[in-house]
Batch of 4 targets.
Target 1
Amino acid sequence: MQFTAAQIAQLIDGKIEGNPDVVVHSFGKIEEAVEGQLSFLANPKYEDYLYNTKASIIIVNESQPLEKPVTSTLIRVPNAYSAFATLLSKYQAIVTSNLSGIQEPSYIADSAKLGENIFVGAFAYIGKNAQIGNNVKIFPQVFIGDNVTIGDDCILYPGVKILNDCKLGKNVTIHSGSVVGSDGFGFAPQPDGSFKKVPQIGNVIIEDNVEIGANATIDRATMGSTYIHAGAKLDNLIQVAHNVEVGRNTVIAAQAGVSGSTKIGNNVMIGGQAGIVGHIQIADGTKINAQSGVSKSVKTPNTSLTGSPAYDYASALRSQAIFRNLPEMEKRLKELENQVRQLLTEKELRSALPGE
């Protein structure tokens, strides 16, 4: 698949500097790109590569100055990173749009309803009364349980499992190995010390424009629904427990875990390996640093937290600075103690002398 600079500029509403007819056939990092590839420059620390890269086309910010001659054709846009992401999305849409039809062997229940222009890969399973929207791409070995609803333009990569009664909105992407609708972790302690399983009879509802990484798990609710609201982005290897609610446009990095019945607000950012206990609330706009442990509700919007247990980010930095200085502070304290002892000793000696 080939594109000219003029075609690319039209897709991302950019302005061309150089040859509009130059052709590219693939993408490459600016430091590694070769002739015939498209790259971009958004991070200033890579600016030196702008002058020696072999990329045929480079997307740059409108404000990017040129300190030396550039051999590549430039496409200037307001935000190079965002424009490059848009271009990759359009490219991916073109690639996946070529997938259509139903491969064999696969199983589709007679009562399932399939939309138009869908792709079902080999060894996929679609259960009873499932409803699949238009332009959905279901890759090989995907399991879709009974009564599942999947909206238009969804992509389910190989090995995804959507268990019974769960609902996906439009334009949802779920990467390989993720499980939506597995049982929540519910066990009732018994008098003899054993645990009795609490049946999990709810479901998971994922709204529009959500993306979920590989090998993530989102548990069904005990009763009601576990919610992933519109625009949320979940990384690989994330655990979302039963009855959790993840707000709109919230992002969660890899290996984070959210315990049952916690409500996470909108536009929250959660770093990798963060842990959040159950039955609390996280206010809109909260930022939780990587490896933080959040043990109580965050009620003030736009709060930044770090540490375990997590607390205010600015206070934590001051505490860390003090902690680093503890050895020197201990030394100074001992010196002060010695000086005080010496002063007391001198005073005692003076009081013992005649005439004092």
Target 2
Amino acid sequence: LGLIEEICTQRGLKRGEAMIQIGWAADGFPIYDSFGHTDAKDAKSPLKQLRSSYQLKKEDRPGGEQGPGGKPDGNYTRDYEFVAGSGDLDECNGRFGATPEFPDGTYYYVTTTEFPSIHRMLRATPDKSFRKMDGPPQNGGETGQNHDESHPR
């Protein structure tokens, strides 16, 4: 919230009075704070806090070697499942709609106050600049270390 509060202070706004772009995802789509237009296509509609469409699963977790067992309580990512239409956002924690920077509409990601606060998958292909050029480090080494040349990269 520190970044969002700082942006609001700089613009003389209170949180929720405007959509706040906080970054860009690897696939080129913008990322916004949790507020968006009630009618996604209408930039003049009131703002509301957008909700994720992920919910806690109702059935118990598998136990034994397959999992920790017990009732899903949000301690594990797998405690959640995507339930289309249960919130405002899609499985990537985004939606298509009008934003201040894109009044005719664009796809955008939303940070939310509930799981998954930050999107966990991308809608499109990441820009090639996000790919490692030499592949992952070999033999547990760090990037920039000498690698055993007998292992292909």
Target 3
Amino acid sequence: SFKILRFIVVTEAIGAMILTIHFLRYENVGNAIWFGIFHAISAFCNAGFSIYADSLMGFQSDPVINFTIMGLIICGGLGFTVLGSLNSFLRGAKNQRLNTHTWLVVVVSFILIGVGAMFILALENDTAPMHGLSVFDKVMAALFQSVSTRTAGFNTIDFTCLKTSTLFFMCILMFIGASPGSTGGGIKTTTFATLFLFVRAKLKGNSQVNVRGRRIPDETIIKSFLIVAISAALVALFTFL
């Protein structure tokens, strides 16, 4: 638990420092420090709260703000177990191998980010929210929304002008959410991955679900189905209400 606390403090401190230094371009010293700390904590905790009334739309073309916030959201959304495993793996610990859970979380997370960004960019490329932006800014905005939509809630484009199809797709990303043991919500990336692998295995005629040479237990698959079913039922209920 101390290692988790230390990681949280160090990560948020680095994010706050970068944001504070950059906010000095727009705010006085006091506001820059407060805004930097607030947004760093909000991003890492996947809270999505912003001091600005329009969230982060005023920084739509600012790569430092965008990529710092994205980095904090991703760190918070991967899960502390995964971050610990990645830390050991990157340090080259003896006999350390990237375990299946960590591998699955990282791969699925970045696939969802990439696919989400491509969909958002394709759907909104020529619409009002991205009108007048350069190609780089459009890609950055799509990436930011793909990262943030899954579980945080910041925005750099105007949601009131988005297509219904884009909003629906974002709802799917929100439903999947972040990873187990993280600061984010949703049914979790591992649940989504388990169901995807199960469907793929059945379509191929395989009786077992395997990932990286390891079999996923039937109990885990059943739990994944139950999580999705219950979550979908709750979403349907509250949407109706």
Target 4
Amino acid sequence: MLQVDITAQKRDGSGKGAARSLRRSGQTPAVLYGPKLAPQTLSLDTHTFTKALFSVHRRNAVINLEVADGAGSTVHHVVTREIQTDPILDNVLHADFYVISLDQPLIFQVPLRYKGKAKGVEMGGELETSMEKVTLKGKALDIPDFIEIDVTPLGVNAKLTCGELPLPAGVELAEKAEGVCVAVIGGSE
């Protein structure tokens, strides 16, 4: 899984007025929370944070969030729970970060990428993809960015189920193994 480093500063103010003031000064308000951590209000440099979000580009990522305060800094391993954006200008308005443990298994949605041309399609069948993502359970750094599926061996009326997906070591399927990912329908055998 992708890892990104981001720095943030603790902030005192909260509410709409404080958030607007931060945004005017080029900062993005954020909140850090987790199972063993009281919620903390943060501020991030908007330009740097936006660049980091573009590097992630809708993929699962562990963020190494360095939070600085007057006494020093602490690094937390987090995932984004929510990123609020302005619907017209597409600026980042607010971010929620959730602290995770790199040693505990978590559940993630992982995209499926299909490659090749199925044999059944060449025989007149039609390739039908039923799933774009699959749910996996494992330690955050063991989860792949995506799962690539070669559909070339699929013949007419053949299918590939979730249980047949190539998963890395330490990662397990967190949904029904009988679910169909892709199938070739119709055509002549």
